[in-house]
């Protein structure tokens, strides 16, 4: 605990830079909490443990970067309903959608200092655990099934253990559609990327690989991306179809260039210290609900995975299927290998194993 608290402030600051959050209007709630010092995870965990032991209600503040209409928002609503019913009201889940409680970086930092309890994160968690990069490993997966196989393998277990070590307990994962590149002109080859300004989430590997392919990348928080596109600060961004639609990027972008460069997953997280402070009965309700949600979200994803592509078409976007994916991949591959080797922790070896698993799954 002391070691974790000793690095909270430095992690908060680096995470803020990593996710590209903040508008220059002052310290974020997470930064303020870190600077305050006394309001730490010990207090949050102790409060939960005392409440559980006394049979009192435990409130869970659940931060989301998406709307309640988004599949993640619908899953959060289903989780809330099931957990509250299962626990007879001992748990109360308060959902804060659409980044209303801050950016993803704010929420993650807040979980370490006790200002929030739950959120979702994936590859952008790499500022806390480098292995999280593999949850969004570029060009490593050919389908959602490949991602699912990885998460449920020894590699996936190792990644989830790294989240736990960093102070975040994994409840369940949610599959995501492939990331696509949006723009106002067709992008077919690396030459089409040259000099074009592009928004990135702050994932260092993804930023480096797009830079190497010719784009000029900037880290911008998701909630600020629409304005950045409409004002010409950037002219491209990349996200799965659901995020393209949910953030109304169809209003400021004409083309979806089907690069399919990243299939990925995102993890639902609860503060590890809060979780460890719960009694066995409350942990049991939480884990049982999470297992149910794993099946619910998998079923929902496969049933609706193509819906958002059609929604983008209906909103007027043009789907460009003429992208030379192999040329783009070749332009990015050297940087991917270099970055993963530099990160240590055998990330490059793990990446190669994931690629081998995906290739075997395709046969």
Automatic annotation (TrEMBL):
GO terms for biological process: transmembrane transport. The keyword Cell membrane does not apply. CDD domains: PBP2_TRAP_Siap_TeaA_like. Residues 1-20 form the signal peptide. InterPro entries: DctP_fam, TRAP_DctP, TRAP_DctP_sf. The keyword Signal applies. GO terms for cellular component: outer membrane-bounded periplasmic space. Keywords: Signal. PANTHER family: BLL6794 PROTEIN, PTHR33376. NCBIfam families: dctP, TRAP_S1. This is Uncharacterized protein. The lineage of its organism: Bacteria, Bacillati, Bacillota, Clostridia, Lachnospirales.
């Amino acid at each position: 605990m002391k070691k974790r608290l000793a690095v909270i402030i430095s992690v908060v600051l680096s995470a803020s830079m990593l996710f590209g959050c903040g508008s220059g209007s002052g310290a974020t709630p997470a930064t303020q909490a870190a600077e305050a010092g006394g309001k730490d995870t010990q207090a949050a965990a102790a409060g939960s443990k005392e409440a559980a032991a006394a049979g009192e209600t435990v409130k869970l503040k659940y931060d989301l970067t998406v709307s309640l209409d988004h599949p993640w928002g619908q899953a959060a609503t289903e989780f809330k309903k099931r957990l509250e019913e299962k626990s007879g009201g001992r748990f109360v889940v308060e959902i804060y959608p659409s980044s209303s409680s801050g950016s993803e970086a704010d929420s993650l930092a807040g979980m370490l200092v006790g200002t929030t309890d739950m959120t979702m994160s994936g590859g952008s968690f790499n500022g806390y655990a480098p292995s999280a990069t593999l949850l969004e490993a570029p060009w490593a997966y050919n389908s959602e099934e490949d991602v699912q196989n990885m998460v449920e393998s020894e590699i996936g277990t190792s990644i989830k253990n790294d989240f736990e070590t960093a102070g975040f307990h994994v409840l369940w994962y949610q599959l995501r559609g492939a990331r696509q590149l949006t723009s106002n002109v067709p992008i077919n080859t690396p030459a089409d990327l040259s000099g074009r300004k592009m928004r990135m989430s702050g994932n260092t590997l993804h930023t480096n690989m797009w830079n190497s392919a010719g784009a000029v990348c900037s880290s911008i928080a998701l909630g600020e991306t629409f304005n950045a596109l409409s004002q010409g600060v950037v002219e491209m961004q990349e996200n799965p179809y659901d995020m393209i639609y949910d953030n109304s990027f169809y209003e400021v972008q004409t083309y979806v260039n089907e690069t399919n460069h990243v299939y990925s997953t995102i993890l639902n997280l609860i503060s590890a210290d809060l979780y460890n402070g719960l009694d066995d009965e409350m942990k049991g309700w939480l884990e049982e609900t999470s297992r149910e949600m794993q099946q619910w979200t998998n079923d929902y994803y496969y049933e609706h995975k193509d819906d958002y592509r059609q929604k983008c078409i209906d909103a007027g976007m043009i789907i460009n299927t003429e992208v030379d994916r192999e040329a783009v991949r070749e332009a990015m591959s050297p940087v991917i290998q270099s970055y993963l080797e530099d990160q240590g922790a055998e990330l490059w070896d793990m990446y190669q194993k994931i690629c081998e698993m995906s290739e075997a799954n395709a046969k």
